[in-house]
Amino acid sequence: MATQEQLKMVRDAGVVGAGGAGFPTYRKLEARVEHVIANGAECEPLLQKDRECMCREPDAFFRGLATMRQVTGARQVTVAIKHKNADLADRMSRGAQEAGCEFFVYQDVYPAGDEYVLVYEITGRQIPPGGLPLHVGCVVDNVETIVNVGKAVAGTPVTEKYVTITGAVRQPLTTVVPIGTSFQDCLRAAGGCTVDNPTLLVSGVMMGGVTRDVTAPVAKTTAGLIALPSDHYLVRRKTATRETYTRIGHGQCDQCSFCTELCPRYILGYPIEPHRVMRTLLMTGEAKERGSLWAQYCCECNVCSLIACPESLDPKNICVDAKALLRTNGLSRTPDELQQLFRPAHPVRHGREIPIKTLYQRLGLTPYDRHAPFVERDWHPQEVQVPVNTHVGQPARPIVSVGDAVAAGDRIADVDPDQLGCPVHASISGRVKSVSSTHIEITTHK
Q: How far is CA 435 from CA 165, 201, 203, 244, in A?
């Protein structure tokens, strides 16, 4: 199959980054690179969907890797997993050998799944500040994305999503749901919540979002749902208002610099120093702008706020606000500044990584550290709300109307060929109940 034909199939199938980024995969694969890296490190604690995805669909996974290797011209292919899943290297050794790829096993630390970390550990190359793996000859994709690539070249569009449903639920599980399935239906599949009025962390406890809306739908980028009591430490931290974390940070930061010394990007050599950004809470004007430049390369992993700071301040959100200021004012480091500030990786970097067990203990997650086995379910939701705007680029434009009959796999929203983006497909068969700029609702009711 010709390269352009394969890329078109990947685009037409609606394949986007399934690990959370949502970047259209066909555009990544247009590059010529030396190395393809399959990210199965499952960076976020408690989630197990990447492991189950590889275990259950090895044929599609290795077909996807072969496709990526062919269209990018890569000479090397590496599958990155954590030590907790090291058995996969043996279980999948035959497929890996036939596909000409090797496994890389990383320690059970956070954030092992950061593509900057993986590229450095596997290739020894530092991605330029603010750059992409492409800039050092690599393409990195989540393993579920790669499975979807394998399905795409076999003619199957993206209509399902692997998710882990865990936390304060009766029966944690990992399963595959039709895209657009409500969070409420997912929680019911896990036996319901064990607390009243839970708060949901969507796609991760560290970098995931927060919602109490159980009617919200699973998207192509949803990695999992973690139900927690609404008074849990993490919920309180993640729902603090800007006024609150700014006021407390303004008065309490004593510049200990722990946030910087444990920052995963700082210890990789990047010019990111959260403690300097905290100083800007006391500044205005040009001084605040210059200080905010130390936030420019923050990856928002939350190590500084949830692990490093001894006073439970929020350097991450202060950095997020500082980056917004830089964008508004069109500010960035000059090339000369970057050349001067970009350093080799810190020699004791591995001693500053955060063990997952430590993270569980510090964040009050030990009671929820339970196995979430794969459960095969015959999902037949009566309604789904299929999102059309969860990928990077142009939102998909609905091409169906209320009352139209659709079958699972039918294209229901599209993006112009000259725009960055991917089409969206019906995840169940039924009739279109409503159409908006954000969702297309499909129902099985007559």
A: 28, 27, 26, 38
How far apart, in whole angstroms, are the C-alpha atoms of residue 195 and residue 178?
26
Which whole-number Å values give the CA distances from 326 to 95, 162, 295, 318, in the listed order? 47, 36, 9, 12
101's enclosing H/E stretch is none
Q: Is residue 325 helix, strand or coil?
A: helix
Run of H or E including 58: helix 58-72
Which pLDDT score is estimated for 429? 97
pLDDT 10s digits, 197-217: 999 999 999 999 999 999 999
Q: Hey, which bits of 148-307 come out as E strands?
A: 160-167, 173-178, 199-202, 209-211, 224-228
pLDDT above 90 for 70: yes
Whether 441 and 414 have beta carbons less than 8 Å apart is answered as no
Do the beta carbons of residue 181 and residue 217 sit within 8 Å? yes
Using DSSP, state whether 405 is helix, strand or coil.
strand
Q: Are the C-beta atoms of 412 and 400 separated by less than 8 Å?
A: yes
At residue 443, does pLDDT exceed 80? yes
pTM: 0.95
Q: Classify each residue of 329-345 as buried b or exposed e, where b means 16 or more C-beta atoms within 10 Å of its C-beta.
A: eeeebeeeebeebbeeb
Helix (H, G, I), strand (E, B) or coil at 267: helix
Instruction: Show the tokens assigned to 393.
Output: 């680029």
Q: Where are the alpha helices (DSSP H) in 342-413?
A: 356-362
Instruction: Give pLDDT, residue 1.
Output: 73
Q: What confidence score (pLDDT) does residue 170 get? A: 98
Question: In whole angstroms, what is the distance from residue 151 CA to residue 416 CA?
Answer: 23
Cα atoms found within 13 Å of the Cα of residue 307, Cβ hemisphere only: 25
Residue 426: which of 415, 413, 445 has the closest Cα?
Answer: 413
Residue with tokens 């994709």: 141
Least Cα distance to 27 among 394, 320, 324 occurs for 394
Contact by Cβ (8 Å): 207, 177? no
Per residue in 225-259, pLDDT (tens digit) is: 999 999 999 999 999 999 999 999 998 999 999 99
Backbone angles phi, psi at 252, to 5 degrees: -115, -20
Chain-centroid distance, C-alpha 251: 33
Mean pLDDT of the chain: 96
Strand-pairing partners, residue 425, are: 411
Given this model, what pLDDT does residue 69 score?
96
DSSP code at position 346: P
pLDDT of residue 445: 84
Mean pLDDT of 361-372: 96
374: number of Cβ within 10 Å: 18
